[in-house]
Amino acid sequence: MRIVVVGAGPAGMAAARTAADAGAEVTMVDSEPEAGGQFLRGRAKFEHRGVTHLKNTEAWMVEGHTLHLRGPRQLHFDALIIATGAYDRPLPFPGWDGPGVITAGAAQALAKQGVTLADRVIVAGTGPFLLPVATALQNLGATLVGVYEANSPLAWARETKAVLANRHKIAELASYRKALSHLETRTAVIAKHGDRVTVAKLDRHWRPVSHRTEHADLVCIGYGFLPRTDLVPNAKRTNDFLDVDELQRTSVENVYAAGEVTGIGGADLAEAEGIIAGAAAAHQEPPLIAVEAVRRGRLFAQALARAHAVQPGWQTWLNPDTTVCRCEKVSLADLTDAASMRELKLTSRVAMGRCQGRICARNAADLTGIPFDGQRRVIAVPIPLGELADLPEETS
Amino acid sequence: MHPDVVVVGAGIIGAACAQALRARGLDVVVIDRSGAASGTSAAGEGNVLVSDKEPGPELELAKASRELWPELAQDAEWEEKGGLVVATTEEACEPLEAFAAKQRAAGIDACELTADEALAHEPHLNPEITAAVHYLQDAQLNPVKATRALLRGIRIIDAEVSTTDGRSVTTTNGVISCGAVVNATGPWARQFGVNVLPRRGVVLVTTPIPGTIRHKVYDADYVGAVASGDADLQTSGVVESTQAGTVLIGSSRQRKGFDGTIESKVLKALARKAIALFPMLAGVPVMRAYGGFRPYAPDHLPIIGEDPRTPGLWHATGHEGAGVGLAPATGRLLADLLTGSTPLVDPHPFRVDRQEVMV
Ligand SMILES: Cc1cc2nc3c(=O)[nH]c(=O)nc-3n(C[C@H](O)[C@H](O)[C@H](O)COP(=O)(O)OP(=O)(O)OC[C@H]3O[C@@H](n4cnc5c(N)ncnc54)[C@H](O)[C@@H]3O)c2cc1C
Ligand SMILES: Cc1cc2nc3c(=O)[nH]c(=O)nc-3n(C[C@H](O)[C@H](O)[C@H](O)COP(=O)(O)OP(=O)(O)OC[C@H]3O[C@@H](n4cnc5c(N)ncnc54)[C@H](O)[C@@H]3O)c2cc1C
Questions:
Q1: Mean pLDDT along residues B251-280
Q2: pLDDT tens string A101-120
Q3: To the nearest whole angstrom, how far is the Cα of A372 from the nearest Cα of chain B?
Q4: Residue nearest to ligand 1 atom 41, measured at CA
Q5: Residue A147 clears pLDDT 60, i.e. is over it
Q6: Confidence of residue B228 (pLDDT cuts 50, 70, 90)
């Protein structure tokens, strides 16, 4: 039984270990030099009997029972586990495309490499993952000007069930004490020009009600997450996250998914889903403890999605000349009236550049009222023509 | 509502028909189930070519279209970039030159170039080429923008048409009666009684490398692939830039119904042929691949005219890999026939009453 896992984050590592322990021959592929994924990179040591870990290797297409890797190289599988995670969603505002604005995820990754990014930093967005990023930046010696959460924590008051089932998450908050004292809610960065940052107080819909100026060299933004689902463009999904059943099976035969590609709930939920996917792919009964962890974790994930949903008022932060698509330099005023994403892209060039809409397509859809179609891409990462030319004649 | 004409399909062909009919003063409504330019017309490279057509009825239609496009495509990234057709083997030289000579006799601007001259036009071209012909009339536009430009001022209804009797159409939003109906549903035209089938094509798009490739450049074997009816995969090297600096790489032809999966063997074949033309492309990343379904009739000629079995039902479809290039003349010819004016070109070869076409 050959099982291939894409992604070596908490979900992928757990899936690989579990499948190998069940006797499968496992290959785990990840684009990074180290295992761990977004959250545990640098802290995880991965070595497991029965698992071959291919580092620095990007997967770019699934074709039948074959996974295509950069190189080019192919892996044939009986079951495939997609554990490619998610990346954070930026929202545009005047100046977001200039220097000194990056995503919270990018800041976290750089901080892990010990890169000192700036003297004065702001972390802005929505969701509990802003706090570890702020803490990491503080630990590198940066002055934290503020952590701005656009939603109100009062939303959590309605989520008692999820909170009670996940008390350990609340305890985790304590470790971010130093950053917590800088937390302001119903607050956002709505413009940045040089080091002058406009910080606004927001109403419930995220429309600014007042603003002030702060000084910061770096603004890190993260308004929720978008899953990396490109390897399975035809798999069924809801709000862009892959649909899975109780065994983590996607709608595509022999393809499982685990971790943040299915929903955002933190590293422990990702790991529990990985255990179930690894067991199920290797035709074993998933351990009850993981099943229970997934049940609890999903309660938390659903509460998180509700409490930290993006509100439409952000659309008032833009001016007509504010950039929406950085790759193709498309501004708000350039967005044409169109009936579909495809028409919008081909007439305005939004989402047609190097990032292929990973950063801007969702925002462009919201700004124009066009239904977001999940952006199915056939090629998951850019690949040189020379490599395509070297593909083998037949794949399996 | 009782329009003179209902056009079914808001692709580039339906748009050109609607525009031409409206220019005659007719009241026209266009119906599409998924919006303007949502089908094949959004999947093409947007070339307006005369270079790939053998002298005959299709070339006449292409020439007429080429004259009409510049005025109609003003807001659609119209670019008279010219085409460069190259032979890559010794055996391919003579057929290419013979083909160009025939086209010249039919009034096409086709200049033979030496390899050095070709390299002066396209500095990154493979110096090993054996012959080249420069077609000055070949041009390019953005087909989605062109479709929208043609449809300006024309009412578009969002609905799916299930049947028509030539005097009305039955849609998901009720029945619309009218004077005449035009079937411009591209690869889906078979549902209204003509034998049109889908022929799959895939295009690769690279990251931007502005200014590197200036013309539409393609391998002389392309003409053979276009004319062939073979179901198996056929590929040939077709390379060009867009105004955004990305490079579009085609072309593949495959008959496999409406199956939209992208296969690695197609990617491989396209990449190899593109690198054979421009070796420097080997290091350029592809950032996306997309595909569409060319609407083709078994005898590879468009279908333009009234259906003898259903008076009032007109067809404008079957343009295969040349619908963008052929759109304005198709619209004009259809409007001429429908209003009883002198036809722009001889309509006989495109009539509906062809053995391969009537189903
Ligand atoms: C800014 C930020 C802060 C966070 N803070 C916390 C926190 O404090 N607590 C917490 O529990 N969670 C936190 N998270 C969430 C945490 O990242 C996730 O819970 C966890 O990493 C999800 O695990 P995963 O295995 O699903 O995906 P990931 O950890 O994202 O792993 C996916 C892996 O797949 C690889 N990959 C993706 N596509 C390909 C491809 N095509 N080819 C090869 N490899 C590929 C990626 O390189 C990556 O290594 C945070 C996330 C962010 C962005
Ligand atoms: C990869 C590729 C590259 C190409 N490159 C070029 C090129 O460079 N130059 C060129 O000239 N041509 C090119 N072509 C060919 C060109 O794209 C087509 O010939 C042309 O787009 C056909 O236009 P159409 O309007 O007939 O069809 P379509 O654009 O497909 O329009 C048909 C419309 O009908 C609608 N429809 C269908 N059924 C119904 C119904 N029952 N009710 C309501 N609406 C319906 C559809 O939604 C669709 O919008 C290419 C094609 C492909 C696939």
A1: 93
A2: 999 999 998 888 887 778 99
A3: 15
A4: A59
A5: yes
A6: low
Of chain A, the percentage scoring pLDDT greater than 90 comes to 78
Of B324, B326, B330, the one to substitute when testing ligand 2's pocket (max ligand atoms within 8 A of C-beta) is B324
Ligand 2 atom, smallest distance to B202 CA = 1
pLDDT of residue A374: 67
pTM metric for this prediction: 0.92
Q: Which atom of ligand 1 is nearest to the CA of A258?
A: 26
As a whole number, the mean pLDDT across chain B is: 94
Give the nearest chain A residue to B289 (CA atoms): A378
Within 8 A of B262 by CB-CB distance, chain A residues are 61, 378
Ligand nearest to the CA of A127: 1
Q: Which residue has the tokens 């536009």?
A: B141
Band of residue B244 on the pLDDT scale cut at 50, 70, 90? confident
